[in-house]
Amino acid sequence: MKDYIKGMRTGVPVIFGFIPVAIAYAVMARQAGIGAFETVLMSAAVFAGASQMMAVEMLSQGAAAVTIIVAAFILNLRHLIMSTCVINRIKKEKLWIKLLAVFGVTDESFAIFTTQKKENSNAAFFLGLITVTYSSWVGGTVIGVIASGLLPEIVSASLGVALYAMFIAILVPGIRDNMRLIMLVIFTALLNMGLSSFMDSSWALIAATLIGAFAGTFFVDMEKMAEMEETCLEASKDAVSTLEKVKTGDRSNG
Amino acid sequence: MDKQILVVILGMAVVTYIPRALPALFIDKMELGPRVEKFLRLIPYTAMAALIFPGILSTDSSEPVIGLAGGLAAVLLAYRRLPVMVCVIGAIAVDMLIYMII
Predict the structure, then answer these.
(1) Rounded Cα gap, residues B99 and B60, in angstroms
(2) Which of B13, B20, B49 has the CB atom closest to A188's CB atom?
(3) Closest to A133 (Cα-Cα) out of A12, A21, A41
(4) Domain boundaries, chain A
C-alpha cells in the first residue's frame, strides 16, 4: 500500500501533461463527429494517446476501420519493448497482476518507471503510477468532451496542431543529438509524402514507417540512442546475466 | 458511422493490448535477434516522422502555414527539452495568434 501511494505521487506531474492532450483529443474527436460516449470509451479501452488522435484524424478523412486498426497496431509495436522493460522489473509477480499492469504501459509510465531506483521497482508502485496516468487520461477526455461545445472557434481551430506538436515534442529530444537518426526521420517523412501521392494516405503511413525502420537498421547508430533506452537495456542485460548465472549455478549443482 | 466507431474502438483495444501483454506472457521465452530489436526500436521514430509529415500541412485545410508555424514552434520548444505540455500549448498559442492576425 505504501508503494502504491508512492507510485501515485510520482505520477502527479504526468497529470499536467496528459490532461491538455486528452482535451485536445476529445475536442478533435467531437469535431470529427464522434459521439461523446464513444470518445470517452476509446480513451478508457485503448489508453494510447497518439493512436487515438491518429484514429480520429483517419476517421475524419473517411479511412476504413481495418487500416485504422493496422496503423494503431504498428504505432503501438513500440510498447513491446517498453512492456518488456517494465515486466523485467516485476517479473516475480503473479500473472494476473502483470497482465493488469501492462495495460498501463505508455511512453510516460515506461519512462518514469524504468528510471526509478531499485526500491521503487515493484508492481505496487507501478500500479499506483498507472492509476494516476489512466485516471488523468480518461478524466481529461471527459473534461474535453464537456468543454468542446464551449470553446471559442479560434481555440478549437488551433487545437488541430496539438497532435503534431505532441509527436514533435516526443520525437525531437530523442533525435536532436543523433545525426543519422535525424536523417532517418527526414527520409521517412519524405518517403511518406512520396508514397501518399499514389496510394491511400493511411497505407502510405504504414508502409513508410516499416520501410523507414527497416532502412534504419542498416545505418543508424544505436549506441547513440536515447539515454532512457540505454538505462532500460542495461536493466535487461543485468537481468539476462543474472538469469544465466542462476542457470549455470543450477547445472553445476545438479 | 456509429457501428464503425465501435468496431474501431474494439479493434484498437485488442491490437494495442497485444504488444503490451506479450512480454508478460513470454518474457523468458522471448529472444529477439539484434536486427529485430533494432527494427522495433526504430519504429517509434519512423512512425512519428510519418505521422507528422505531410499531415501537418493540412492542419487547416486551406492554410498550410498554420500547421508549419505551430510545428516550428513545437520543434524549437522541444529542442530545448521542454515538457510535452509546454510544446503543445506553445504550438496552440502560436496558431491562435496567427488566426487572430489573418
Answers:
(1) 11
(2) B49
(3) A12
(4) 2-160
Can you tell me the distance from the alpha carbon of A212 to that of A227, in angstroms, rounded to the nearest whole number? 22
Distance, CA of A212 to CA of A191 (rounded, Å): 8
Q: What predicted TM-score, i.e. pTM, was given to this entire model?
A: 0.73
Match 493540412 to its residue by C-alpha cell.
B58
Structure confidence at residue B1 (pLDDT): 55
Chain B residues in contact with A209 by the CB 8 A cut-off are 43, 46-47, 50
The answer to whether residues A55 and A190 touch, using CB atoms and an 8 Å cutoff, is no
| Interface subset of A 80-109, CB within 8 angstroms of B | 80-81, 83-84, 86-88, 91, 95, 98-99, 101-103, 105
- Domain positions in chain B are 1-31, 33-102
Supply B83's cell numbers: 515538457
The answer, yes or no, to whether residue A228 has pLDDT greater than 50, is: no
Distance (Å, whole) CA A185 – CA A179: 10
Q: What is the ipTM of this complex?
A: 0.85
